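worker-3 :: picked Acetoin utilization deacetylase AcuC
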Amino acid sequence: MLKIAWTEIYAHPLPKNHRFPMEKYNLLPEQLLYEGTVSHENFFAPAALPEGLVLRTHDANYWKKLKSLSLDRKEERKTGFPLSQQLVAREVTIMNGTLMAAKYALEFGIAMNIAGGTHHAFTDRGEGFCLLNDIAIAANYLLDEGLAKKVLVVDLDVHQGNGTAQIFEQEPRVFTFSMHGAANYPMHKEKSDLDIGLPDGIEDDAYLKILRENLPRLMDAVAPDFVFFQSGVDVLATDKLGRLGMTIAGCKERDRTVLQTCFNNNIPVVASMGGGYSQKIAHIVEAHANTYRLAQEIYF
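worker-3 :: tokens ->
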């Protein structure tokens, strides 16, 4: 059964002019339920992640400032969010959603999080709508518990997974692969194990050719026994922040490539939502929904 982390806590109030589309976190599961792709039994509501698991990945001083709402103005501004207790509670719930999804993926082959993909969170700071790094927290948990020996992060958000790269720069058991807009945020890129910077305006065929050339090679070279897939849909041509030229159909084929590759190689995978900032919320929801439709089609 496809298990999906979802909780109503995502309805965090933000300023009306804020560009982060929080409403997608409720619209996506509603769409999936309406069309019959999933039922209510597919969803689970994670609790807050235990503090010890936060501290396994993140700096204790940073976590103390975060939970006490004592980030300075510069630190808060870099996260992109007005800091609040509700926001921090939302974040630690997202973290546990991905960790629990990882456990479900070991059982069912795949699991997903209606949120997550917070790849701009570093060990000691937050950036770009990310306070804590769910992929890193879940990957460390699997490694610590002996549930995985080699993890591959496939980050296909339009923005480089800079926080994930920094967290695992000295960890040979985690291979970080980021395929992103070369000229897009963050302007200073960290060093992933494999970075592929894409030109502005790249379209479906060229994008998919690059992915299909590299992903099978990584499966052979890295030989992972677990994959985390950051499936941001800010690669769309309609995205306000993306600058690439992909269609919704092309984004769907991107996701099919990743999920089918994991399925064919019998490697458990967790997909986290990542970014998506198209002007029309329907474009965001449709592109994200395709990832879940494909998971059902391929795995179940």
